[in-house]
Amino acid sequence: MQTLKSVRELRGVTQKAVAEHLGVARQTYANYESKQEKMTVEQAKAACDFLHCEVADVFLPEEVK
C-alpha cells in the first residue's frame, strides 16, 4: 500500500497543488496525508485522479485487494 504522501512526492507535486485541486487549505491536505481516513470518498478519488494513481493502491490495505 502506498500513501498519499509517497505518491505525491514520487510525482514531484506540492501539497499546495493537491490542496488547490481539492479546494481545501494546504494545512487541511497535510492533515489528510497523515490521517487519510479523514478524507471523503470524493476527495480520495479526486486526489488520486490528480496524482494519476489508483484509489485502491493508496486507500486499501494489501490483504483487502
From TrEMBL:
Protein name: Helix-turn-helix transcriptional regulator
Domain of life: Bacteria
Domain (HTH cro/C1-type) ranges: 4-58
Signal peptide residues on this chain, from the entry's feature table: none
InterPro entries per the UniProt record, alphabetical: Cro/C1-type_HTH, Lambda_DNA-bd_dom_sf
